[in-house]
Design a protein that fits this description.
heterodimer; A: alpha+beta; 40% helix; disordered N terminus; B: 453 residues; 3 domains; 4-stranded antiparallel beta sheet; DNA replication (chain B)
């Protein structure tokens, strides 16, 4: 979990309490949160998820499992409570309702209850250390600031948000097809990015080194303002990159991003792309064409599209047998569109990550799950906000079952999706794993006892 | 006389059977002269040190292979050829005793022995490799003809991506859970499908090495326990003094204990940054002054460096606060950043006193978007590097030498040349730690300052 939010520290989103009648002004404040945690936040679902089947009655259930998970709460006055742990669903729920945290983070499952950590040494046998943790990814659109012109910093709009959609598609496919993971949850981070939780047992038991390896497998963009070329393909592409390019990235770049970001429309912008081509003769040829070619006879065709075609033709014309140019087109496409992950988040098991269904304090939006098969549908500007949900609660049917008030609201869709697409299949698989593991263990003891 | 008690082994086969590459599973049941104990260990240490230096200079795998062959030949031959294997095994186990005693020592030894093992494996014949694979009991399975045909196109793509020859019809590939070959996964050097990596014969070294590393890592912990509980005391008059002397002989100063704390005050920092900071730290320092902010990687690299230079914690807090407040405000600094500075000085959390990063660590870091840490000789484009060196006052002739070193990936040599150019004096030892650069620089400049006064 990074403590650095963007420098937008202004308080203009905070408004004092609800005003007249049923009108709930937009904003984010502790009173709204109290209602949210009281009536909408899916405590039971989070508990079930985090228990991974250990809350059942099967003999193989580990009763200590949930209690060894770290949660952390950020309170309203920026007080930060780490190493919170709970032994039951009600303890979790009561603590959240009582403390009303503006943010809830989820950490790893430790070897012992985090509350007892001081009794344990740092090394040797009796150690306090993470033993299980989901494989997580954090993609933040501010990491793309050098390639989006519509927004910068914490802002997001419908022109640049598709970069996140593309990232989800590339990573999700790889996690399933390449790594064989099944239980994957994608979540909107509430403002400017997405989080991914891979929850298979195999994933939870990965070591730091293995996580680092997966993160590096996904790493393509290398560098920052100090280096020149951020994407470099010295040789033909690995099958994973080939698939990402042909199935997602090329089409996205050529049919969406080129136009929505006007990548070639000004000198400053096309120079940025030219700086990615390591051949003077090519770049000067193109520059020559574009400097004079303000408004040419090709005014019917979009200038970005036209110049991109020119660039591709020049590079692929075969005139250039120079080494570094063979995959220049791919390098440019990847530089703009390929997912940029925060390596540190994924590499360390003890890294904390915000829990789904939290409300983002700066936007008031709820961190709802995203369906990777349908990720283009997510519009960050219409994700339910805290105040909207409260309004829906107030105007909703009061005869409905008190337990499932979220069904009255737009949150209902998200919770239903969470359950059917993610939680149920996950718990089913956990149960199966537990049962087969248990059977195998019984068999083993039987075998060792027999003479 | 037996040196160490042998550990339980699963098989009864003698240590030095078919392959000349031992598994080091259990200590030899041999008589060893005390003299040989020390000499064998020193010879092996010379090999490990050679590997360590070469890695720090960024030598390529092909160069490393040759280097290891030469180092081994030069140091590990025994006058009686039949005793070669015993020397190998004995020296390894002696060094286990020497390097098991702290986390840092273990880490270094583990890295070097793993590198040594890797290159010795690569130098062996296909037959030896195959035999060793079986000894290691790895969770991999050769793929069938059908599986090969199905995956052929992808396997060819991978081979092409690394300029390797395409797999022939009778090529052997092993299917292995991806968790077993993290380095291959990280480098995208294998085709992965549904959780299994398709590993070529020549890559099989990765499997072996991972297992070797894991076994050795566990063994070192056990050895440490044995050492502290029985051996050290038992061998007080005989082996212990030798073991303790051996460990001092390599890993130079780590700058975790600064000699004079408080020697540097905040007002000196700007001037010191210009005169005595290595480029990596100067860049971070300048960016901090410019942006009034640094991301986590930069805060760690620069913060620990300043600690090593002698900046007291109170001064460090004041310094960082003065900068960060201009960007995020004093209150936010206190809430969000002060804690980690205190953490660096060992005043929070588990109270580890963190060591300033060495060049090796800095060179291998991976700065991303918005970061300014890392090694400029490695991470900057040539153009940016030239500009930065120019600002440091490096003349045009020296600059060409530096850039030449960088092109050959000799980053620390490049930094050494920079040092020499800036200070107009030679640095024979070579730079391998930013704090070393600083203290060497300080040594040269201080007497001048005193004379001037």
């Amino acid at each position: 979990m990074t403590k650095e939010e963007s420098k937008n520290g202004s308080d203009d989103m905070l408004i004092d309490g609800p005003k007249q009648g049923n009108v709930i002004p937009d904003g984010f404040n502790p009173n709204y949160l109290k209602v949210y945690y009281g009536r909408l936040f899916p405590h039971a679902d989070i508990f079930k998820w985090m228990s991974y089947g250990n809350d059942g009655r099967h003999p193989a259930c580990d009763k200590s499992y949930f209690g060894r998970r770290e949660f952390s709460f950020t309170l309203d006055n920026d007080i930060y409570l780490r190493f919170q742990s709970f032994n039951s669903e009600s303890e979790l729920e009561n603590s959240i309702k009582e403390k009303c945290p503006s943010k809830i983070d989820i950490g790893p499952v430790y070897s012992v209850d985090p509350a007892k950590r001081h009794a344990y040494a740092q090394g040797g046998d009796n150690v306090f250390a993470p033993v299980e943790r989901e494989l997580i990814f954090d993609i933040d659109i501010t990491d793309y600031d050098d390639v989006r012109y519509c927004c910068s910093g914490a802002d997001v709009c419908l022109e640049c948000w598709p970069l996140m959609t593309v990232a989800i598609k590339v990573i999700d496919t790889a996690l399933r097809d390449d790594f064989g993971f099944d239980h994957i949850l994608w979540v909107y981070s509430g403002r400017r990015g997405v989080h991914c939780w891979v929850c298979d047992g195999k994933a939870r038991r990965l070591t730091n080194e293995q996580r680092g390896a997966i993160a590096d497998y996904f790493r393509v963009y290398k560098g920052n303002e100090n280096s020149n070329k951020k994407v470099s393909f010295p040789g033909p592409l690995h099958p994973f990159l080939v698939r990402s390019y042909t199935e997602v990235l090329r089409e996205f770049f050529e049919e969406k991003l080129l136009l929505s970001q006007n990548l070639f429309s000004t000198e400053e912008r096309y120079e940025k792309i030219l700086s990615m081509i390591p051949d003077e003769s090519v770049t000067s040829e193109l520059r020559g064409k574009w400097q004079e070619n303000r408004r040419s006879s090709n005014s019917k065709e979009d200038i970005n599209f036209f110049r991109w075609e020119q660039l591709k033709n020049t590079l692929q014309s075969g005139k250039q047998k120079v080494q570094g140019l063979r995959r220049c087109v791919e390098e440019i496409v990847f530089a703009f569109t390929y997912p940029r992950l925060d390596m540190e988040v994924s590499k360390h098991r003890n890294h904390l990550l915000k829990a789904p269904f939290c409300v983002h304090p700066k936007t008031g939006r709820v961190c709802i799950p995203i369906d990777p098969k349908d990720c283009e549908e997510l519009d960050p500007t219409t994700v339910p906000t805290l105040s909207e949900l409260l309004r829906e609660l107030n105007t909703g049917d009061s005869r409905m079952d008190v337990d499932n008030e979220w069904e009255k609201t737009s949150l209902g869709k998200s919770i239903r999706f969470f359950r059917s697409s993610f939680l149920q299949p996950l718990l089913k698989s956990c149960k199966e794993e537990m049962e087969s593991g248990y059977k195998a263990k019984i068999q083993q003891t039987k075998n060792s006892l027999s003479w | 006389m037996e040196i160490v008690r042998s550990q339980r082994s699963r098989t009864n086969t003698p240590n030095d059977s078919v392959s000349t590459l031992p598994l080091y599973r259990y200590a030899p049941q041999l008589e060893v002269r005390l003299e040989d104990f020390e000499v064998f260990a020193m010879d092996r240490l010379r090999v490990l040190k050679g590997i360590s230096d070469a890695l720090a200079r960024g030598k390529r795998p092909e160069e490393m292979e040759n280097l290891v062959r030469d180092l081994w030949k030069a140091n590990m031959r025994h006058p009686e050829a039949s005793e070669d294997v015993n020397k190998d095994i004995i020296s390894h186990f002696v060094l286990r005793l020497v390097y098991c005693r702290t986390e840092d020592l273990r880490k270094w030894f583990l890295s070097m022995e793993t590198a040594l093992y890797r290159y010795r494996f690569l130098l062996g014949s296909s037959e030896a490799k195959r035999a060793l694979m079986e000894e290691f009991d790895l969770p991999c399975k050769a793929i069938s003809r059908t599986e090969f045909e199905n995956a052929k196109e992808k396997l060819e793509q991978v081979a092409r991506s690394f300029d390797q020859p395409l797999p022939t019809a009778d090529a052997i590939f092993y299917k292995v859970p991806f968790e077993e070959v993290p380095e291959l996964v990280a480098g995208r050097r294998v085709y992965i499908h549904k959780g299994h990596a398709y590993v070529a014969m020549h890559q099989v070294v990765s499997l072996v090495v991972t297992q070797f590393r894991s076994n050795l890592s566990k063994a070192l912990i056990l050895t440490n326990r044995k050492w502290t509980s029985t051996i050290r005391e038992q061998e007080r008059d005989r082996l212990t003094p030798i073991v303790e002397a051996l460990s001092m002989s390599y890993l130079g100063p780590d700058y975790s204990q600064t000699k004079e704390f408080g020697e540097i005050s905040i007002k000196d920092l700007d001037q010191l940054a210009r005169s005595s900071f290595p480029l990596c730290m100067r860049h971070l320092f300048d960016k901090l002054r410019e942006d009034h902010h640094l991301k986590h990687g930069g805060r760690m690299q620069l913060g620990l460096f300043l600690k090593g230079v002698g900046l007291r914690m109170e001064d460090a807090l004041a310094f960082w606060k003065a900068e960060f407040s201009q960007k995020v405000g004093a209150e936010r600094f206190d809430k969000e950043y002060a804690y980690s500075i205190r953490h660096n000085y060992g005043k929070e959390g588990k109270r580890t006193d963190y060591t300033p990063y060495s060049c090796q660590k800095i060179i291998s870091s991976t700065p991303g978007v918005g970061d300014h840490h890392g090694c400029p000789y490695r991470h900057f484009s040539e153009e940016n590097l030239r500009a930065a060196l120019g600002r440091m006052g490096v003349g045009s002739r020296a600059m060409e030498d530096v850039v030449d070193k960088v092109r050959n990936r000799h980053y620390q040599l490049a930094c050494t040349l920079t040092f020499e150019a800036v200070h107009s004096s030679s640095c024979d030892a070579g730079i391998n730690h930013p704090n070393q650069y600083f203290s060497d620089s300080h040594k040269i400049l201080q007497p001048k300052n005193n004379n001037a006064a």
